[in-house]
Design goal:
The chain has ten helices and twelve strands. It is an alpha/beta fold.
């Protein structure tokens, strides 16, 4: 069997940076309990390894349990400014591991909201990144999840709007939504804030699909960017599967001659390597 890896796959800069921040906090804060506010990244295996080193997860509704003897890491997806203030009030030390590209979107949401623009964000409802950016936009905020949502937006030809995207959104769908919204506003500034890492992984997967008989997408089942990779894989390759670990490889994949592997931006190198080696050993 020939196993071909996508040109770009696995950990992105923002995720690797967040993991590095937390590992450093665990090493240097032996006298303090280290938490992440919600899961640091959307990968069960990576989180379990960090928990073995002493990391714990705390939810927003339990922020009051933090104190001066605790460290809390803000995950790569970021949080709203109100959440930051609530943590500061506890006296806990904050390690801000928000991805710089998400931070840029937060700043743009705040800036344009202050300038009187409606901030429109294309993304997934309840995703951590989306709720964080919404907090910076305040009341001047509209979430669009699908092309259908965009079509249902009422014309507001007296209003200025700015269009942002969740960093892990599908590039083609974002462009379609932008085209639908353009004629609905007096002015629509389009800021394609889809992370280049997301686009690179999606484009690399599209190049990979014609070269193989089947594609394996490796990633956390609650990872938005991994799910989008799987959607692209299904569109471009008949035999496509989405797995979290090597044990989930379907039996029929071992009978193929050429298999492609891609992985979401929160998938550790070790998991990708294990999947590749299992296929090659068969």
């Amino acid at each position: 069997m020939e196993v071909i890896l996508a040109d770009v796959l696995g950990y992105c800069m923002g995720v690797r940076r967040a993991v590095d921040f937390v590992e450093k906090a665990l090493e240097t804060s032996s006298d303090k309990k280290v938490y992440t506010l919600g899961p640091l990244i959307h990968n069960k295996i990576a989180l379990e390894k960090l928990q073995e080193k002493g990391l714990s997860v705390i939810q927003e509704n339990n922020i009051n349990l933090l104190n001066q003897n605790t460290v809390v890491a803000i995950r790569a997806h970021g949080v709203s400014p109100n959440v930051i203030k609530n943590i500061e009030n506890t006296g806990a030390m904050i390690v801000n591991a928000t991805c710089p590209k998400v931070s840029a979107s937060q700043k743009n949401a705040y800036k344009y909201a202050q300038m009187g623009y409606l901030v429109i964000l294309v993304g997934d409802k309840n995703h951590g990144e989306v709720t964080g950016i919404a907090g910076y936009a305040g009341d001047s905020f509209l979430l669009i999840e699908t092309v259908s949502d965009a079509k249902n937006v009422q014309n507001s030809l007296q209003q200025k709007a700015v269009l942002l995207s969740q960093t892990t959104f599908n590039s083609d769908e974002f462009e379609s939504i932008a085209e639908i919204l353009k004629p609905k506003f007096k002015e629509l500034k389009i800021l394609n804030t889809i992370c280049s890492a997301t686009r690179e992984r999606q484009d690399a997967l599209k190049r990979l699909c014609p070269l193989v008989e089947g594609v394996i997408v490796v990633g956390g089942k609650n990872s938005a960017n991994s799910r989008r990779l799987f959607e692209i894989a299904k569109e471009n390759c008949m035999k496509s599967v989405f797995i979290e670990n090597v044990d989930e490889i379907p039996d029929y994949f071992y009978k193929l001659n050429k298999v492609g592997i891609t992985a979401g931006a929160s998938t550790p190198d070790s998991v990708i390597k294990a999947v590749k080696e299992a296929l090659e050993k068969y």
